[in-house]
Amino acid sequence: MKISQTTLKKNQGLSLIEMMVSMVLGLFLVLGLTTMYMGSKKSDKVRDAVSRMEENARLTLNTLRSAIEHAGYKSVDNIPLDKPFYTPSDGALQNENCGASEGLIINNNLLTPPAGLDDYTKDGDVDNDESDMLTVVFRADNPDKGPIFFDCSGEAYIGLTNPDAQQKACSTDPLVGVSDPWKSRIFNTIYINSADKTLHCMGSRSATGSLTLAKGIENMQIRYGVTTTNSAGNRQTTYKKADDVEANNEWEAVTSVQVAILMVSDQEVLDKAQAHHISLLDEEFDIASDRKIYRKFSTTINLPNRTRREMQQVSRTSAEKT
Questions:
Q1: Residue 60 to residue 215: CA distance in whole angstroms
Q2: Is 14 a domain residue?
Q3: Domain presence at residue 37
Q4: CB half-sphere exposure, 257, CA atoms < 13 A
Q5: I need a surface site. Which of 77, 117, 149, 229 has the fewest CB within 10 A?
Q6: Which domain holds residue 103?
Q7: Burial annotation 121-132 (CB, 10 A radius, 16+ → b, else e)
């Protein structure tokens, strides 16, 4: 059988040149798709890091708010407590025994600050990249009458046989609480552990010691809103450092707290390392070059117990003028 030339040409397939051109085009297509995939993967990695930072920041600020907003709370029994924050001038900070028997609050050195933190409410040394720290003070309710009887751990008297009895015995309740209302105080000491970039709180009503509240925090700066009344009778709030409030003995006039935190990603996700110059509230400091992401978050925490007190003072003053 004789095969025609036309049939032979149809069965020849691709030439070498055509095959090489097809391969090159295929390589360009694969390279383009690979580049798009890698770029998308890097973007996803950055987005995931930022998303985790934002979630950690929300958790941190909410935790700080719940720990700080009780500052100056006088309990449902309205036992005076003029100073909302514990400072170095107040002396050594130790838990008090309370109730009819000794030892209802265990570990009376619980609130001794960790090594390197020698005060309670203070400004950190920015030259050494230190964060600020504070100790909140408020009074304990009888759990049958009021909502405030926990420290920052959320669980009072962990490990004791009858925590409900301890909560009542260490409250301001005039019948079953402490005979000396001074001993009804609860403390929360809040600080940043720079070694592992975690937020910690030491509470006076649990035996757990320092509790980790949040992670991924590079630095924390705190300012205190001091509310005063000027000569015209107008109230104004100025935000100051702890040392300045202490120097002027203005703690009783603090009605709000500004908190700014610098969050850092848990992994290096940027393509190139870069140094960072950070301004947090009115403090500035530098961070060594790395490939991590840094973000700033801040909030203002009103102290309802202090605000109410200031309003009452203004009302009394106005009534006296009239």
A1: 8
A2: no
A3: no
A4: 30
A5: 229
A6: 45-321
A7: bbbbeeeeebbb
Q: How many domains does the chain have?
A: 1
Strand partners, 258: 223, 300
Residue 219: which of 269, 281, 272, 270 has the closest Cα? 281
The Cα 140–Cα 74 span in angstroms is 8
- Collapsing DSSP to helix, strand or coil, 316 comes out as helix
What residues contact 49, with CB distance under 8 A and at least 6 apart? 265, 266, 267, 269, 293
Q: How many residues does the chain have?
A: 322
For residue 36, give both structure tokens. Answer: 């798009």
Please indicate, yes or no, if residue 144 is contained in any of the structural domains.
yes
Q: Is residue 13 part of a domain?
A: no
* Separation in Å, CA 165 to CA 142, 173, 177: 10, 12, 10
